[in-house]
Each structure stands twice: as C-alpha cells, then as structure tokens.
Task: inverse folding
C-alpha cells in the first residue's frame, strides 16, 4: 500500500508530507483547494506525463516521492528485480520535474526510465475518476479482470507460454523451410560446387605452406646456376688444381737443391691444394642440395593457383575455402534430408498448436461461465447505486483464427443504462457519473482480485444524492477491507465512513505574503464533525447540520 507521499514545489504545494494508513482515506475541501494537485502529483510519481507547468511558480524544479510497502512476492517487485533495480525494503518512487519540461525518474534511488516507473506504478496504484477509468478503457484489462474474478490468471499464464512455444516451433519450421527451398533452387550449382570443393579438398593453412615451398624452390633455382659455375671452375677442364699440384711437385724437387729457400712456399701451396679440395667437395654438396624435381615445383604452383582460382570464384579468401566447403556440404545435407526434417518440424508445430488450441478452448469455456457470474455480481451492486434499471453484461466473443498469447477471446464490458436502449460498450454508453458507479460495483465484485493494492477514486460521487452517496460510501468501506482506498469526495456520506480524513485548503504562505499554497491537515475525530457538517450545510454551518454529521459519523442513517 501507499504509506507516504512527499511533494515539493508542485503547482500550489510548497512542501507537503502525507502519511497514509490502510483502509479508507478521504480527501475533502472546497473546490479549487488543490485536491486535483494531489492526484496529479501522485500520478507524476507513478510515471504519469510530466509537464514543466507543474513546477511551482518561481522555482526551477519540483519533486514528488511516493513510498510503498508491499510483500516481497508482489509483481511490482518482480518487475523491478527483472530490470536490475534493488527492491529491498520499501519501494520509493521519486520523480523530479524541471520547469523546462525535463524529468528524471528514480526507484530506490536508482535512475530508471519513465516507462519502467509507469509499468511498476500501474501494479501498485489504480487511479479512477469520471474521465480516466483505466480499468474500463482497455478491453485487454476487461479480460484480465474477468480472469482475476474467476481465478484463471495462472491458466492464462500457462496459455501464454503454450502460445510462445507454438510460435517458436512455427518460426523454426518457416526458417528451415526457407533454407531448404533456397537450397533446392540452387541444387545443381550446390552439388557442382560441393563436388569441386571436395575434389579440391582445401586444408587450413595450405596456401601459406604452398607459397613458402614455391618460394624456396624458386630461390634454389636461381642460386643453383652460380653454384654450378663455381663447381665447373673447381672441377672442370680449367680447374687450377692439377696445375698447382704439378707446380708443388716441381718445387719440392728443387727445394732439396737449395735448403731453406722453398720449404715455406711449398707448404703454403700444399695448404692451398687442401683448401681447394675441400672447396670442391663443399661445392658438390651444395649443388646436390639445390637439386629439386622441376615437376614438384609445377605441382606446387598448380595446387596454389587452383586454390586461389577457387577463392576468386566463390568470393572468399583462400583461408575461407574449408569453411565454405563445410557450409555447402551442410546445405546439401539439409537439402537431401530436408523433407524428412520438414516433416518432423511440421509435426512439432501441429502438436504445439493442438496443445494451445486445447488450453485456449478450455480457458474460453471457463471465461464464458465466469462472465455470467461476474455480470450477476456487478448487477447485485447496481440497485443500491441507483442503477437498478441498468444492466451490466460481460461479452465474450471467440475467434480461433485470431489466436494470441492471451487466448482466442475478446472480453468487453457492455451496459444498458435504461430499458429499451441499445446495449453497448461501457465507455461509449455510460455517462461520467454512471461510469464511476459501474466501476465501483465492478471493484466491489472483484474485491482484491485483479486489483492494485491501492485504489484511488477521484470524485466518483459527483452528481449523486444522499442515498446513492451513502451506498457509494458503504461500498468504498467494504472495498477498503481488502485493499487500501483513497477517495477524493464532496459527499459527507462517503467522508463519514473514512478511517483517515484529510482536509485540503489553500491560503497565503505567510503573513502578508502574496503567494498561495495548498495545505493538507489530518483531521482529528473531534474536528471531523465540523467538516462533515460544512459539507452538509455549505457556507453556514447550522446545529442541524452538526447533528446530522454526528449521526453520519456514528453510522446512523
């Protein structure tokens, strides 16, 4: 329930803190005192439309804070937790409205979107008046109220889950069918491509490997010519080795004839012969190492160019060919096994649709039965509200072809305000005063089912007389035993039944001040009689009015 409402600098309200109790609370006061400002402020805190004109004149911003105490299992807490908002303790809704039209929303001091604030607020408070009866405007809400009345909310949730499973199965079927049909249209191309790619059999990293081998062989080919030339010089006909060897032998013979003259020269030439011999062997070894099969180079180039040609053909990099081959093989497998898989998916859709249809028909039958019971429950409340000639009907129309997550039913509240008139949708047929009383009868019939924990009624007693006002007061009192009820009223019969009575007034902010401010006072029991007497008598309160007020407060007629 709503436990506190704090308002700062909104229209005529400078600073106001209100504490609310369970049961029925009424707000009374002269016309223009500011009762609508309180409701506008509460609506703002619940995510209602913001407006810079709401800010008190001369201020740059206004603020409204609403504090709620609800069980941990309440749907509003579930919604907030699902959106990452800490919901420990009380739920504190705070809305800051700037004079320039900008607005900021906070829940438990965490910034939130106005949309989330509105969604959570709708689960905490319902505001009803003669012109904005939310519960009656939207036909989807009619269905939800009927389900709540009949205790069908869990079945409606199960139906929604069944609907989503059916639609998901249908989506999977359509997606697979589109793939199979697309593959079928390209079957010849696909089969030829798969055949080509399977023959090519590209491997990951193969391009780099082939390119490296090709580069090595090409480099070896270029180097081999120089090595062969060196080999020819060292080992061919023009090799200096025989000449040097002959020269060494001659010098060795002469060295004996002239000791000490040629020994060192012969030694050096002998070393040169050894080095030349080593060079001959190394050149031959290098030449052997540069040898390669020209056919191998041809094969490598052919493979490399084949891979690159395939990549160009299929508009993918060479590295993407293995993945492309896998995809095409999978597509071809889907095509080959498509009909069988389609059959299985079609069976899944039929089964899901059949399950949904079964649940939808069962729920529809229960809704039709509950519609009669809800109509009777509301009708039972109408005579006391001076609507004894009116009829309230819950129309349930079913269309299996228009299946939704909510079922196959459209639920609409219809009324006939007078005998002989044509029944029609409640929002089109009923006047403002009648609409309010129908709403009250509906809420009493529903009790706390399908209702937010706090209900606000804005002058639903407007234009009705004593007996009807008394009947409205009785029903608001009954309703307040189940949920918290706040009522803005001009009817003393309603005000007298309240557990908490707030008096709204306005006046100067201070001595000699020109600014006007709205004030709210919680009335003590001894002062309530005078306010109710004023409501009965008008400007001049008489003893008779005070006596009548005392009788109302005591519960006497």
Result:
């Amino acid at each position: 329930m709503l436990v506190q409402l704090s308002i700062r600098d909104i229209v005529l309200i400078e600073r106001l803190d209100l504490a609310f109790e369970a049961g029925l609370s009424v707000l009374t006061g002269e016309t223009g005192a500011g009762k609508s400002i309180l409701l506008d402020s509460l609506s703002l805190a619940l995510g209602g439309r913001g407006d810079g004109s709401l800010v008190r004149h001369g201020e740059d911003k206004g603020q409204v804070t609403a504090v709620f105490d609800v069980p941990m299992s309440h749907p509003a807490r579930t919604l907030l937790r699902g959106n990452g908002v800490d919901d420990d303790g009380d739920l504190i809704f705070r809305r800051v409205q700037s004079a320039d039209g900008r607005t900021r929303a906070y829940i438990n001091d965490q910034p939130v979107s106005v949309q989330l604030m509105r969604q959570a607020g709708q689960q905490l408070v319902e505001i009803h008046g003669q012109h904005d009866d939310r519960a009656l405007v939207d036909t989807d809400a009619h269905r939800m109220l009927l389900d709540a009345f009949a205790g069908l909310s869990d079945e409606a949730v199960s139906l929604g889950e069944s609907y989503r499973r059916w639609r998901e199965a249908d989506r999977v079927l359509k997606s697979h069918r589109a793939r199979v049909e697309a593959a079928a249209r390209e079957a010849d191309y696909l089969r030829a491509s798969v055949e080509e790619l399977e023959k090519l059999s590209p491997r990951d990293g193969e391009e780099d490997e082939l390119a490296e081998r090709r580069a090595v062989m090409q480099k070896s080919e270029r180097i081999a010519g120089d090595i062969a030339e060196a080999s020819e010089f060292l080992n061919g006909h023009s090799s200096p080795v025989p000449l040097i060897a002959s020269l060494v032998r001659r010098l060795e013979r002469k060295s004996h004839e002239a000791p000490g003259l040629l020994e060192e020269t012969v030694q050096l030439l002998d070393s040169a012969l050894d080095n030349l011999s080593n060079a001959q062997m190394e050149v031959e070894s290098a030449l052997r190492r540069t040898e390669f099969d020209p056919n191998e180079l041809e094969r490598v180039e052919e493979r490399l160019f084949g891979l690159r040609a395939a990549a160009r053909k299929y508009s993918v990099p060479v590295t993407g060919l293995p993945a492309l081959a896998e995809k095409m093989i999978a597509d071809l497998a889907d095509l080959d096994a498509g009909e069988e898989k389609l059959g299985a998916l079609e069976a899944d859709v039929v089964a899901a649709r059949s399950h949904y249809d079964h649940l939808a028909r069962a729920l529809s039958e229960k809704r039709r039965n509950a519609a009669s019971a809800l109509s009777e429950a509301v009708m039972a409340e109408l005579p006391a509200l001076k609507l004894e000639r009116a009829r309230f009907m819950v129309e349930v129309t079913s269309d299996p072809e228009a299946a939704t997550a909510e079922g196959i039913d459209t639920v609409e509240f219809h009324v006939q305000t007078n005998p002989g008139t044509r029944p029609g949708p409640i929002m089109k047929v009923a006047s403002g005063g009648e609409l309010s009383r129908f709403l009250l009868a509906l809420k009493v019939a529903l009790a706390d089912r399908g209702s937010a924990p706090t209900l606000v009624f804005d002058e639903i007693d407007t234009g009705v007389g004593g007996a009807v006002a008394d009947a409205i007061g009785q029903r608001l009192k009954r309703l307040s035993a189940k949920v918290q009820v706040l009522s803005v009223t001009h009817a003393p019969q309603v005000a007298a039944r309240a557990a908490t009575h707030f008096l709204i007034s306005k006046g100067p902010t201070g001595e000699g001040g020109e600014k006007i401010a709205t004030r709210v006072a919680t009335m003590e029991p001894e002062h309530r009689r005078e306010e109710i007497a004023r409501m009965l008598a008008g400007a001049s309160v008489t003893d008779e009015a005070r006596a009548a007020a005392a009788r109302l407060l005591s519960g006497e007629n």
Summary: Residues 25 and 261 are 138 Å apart (CA to CA).
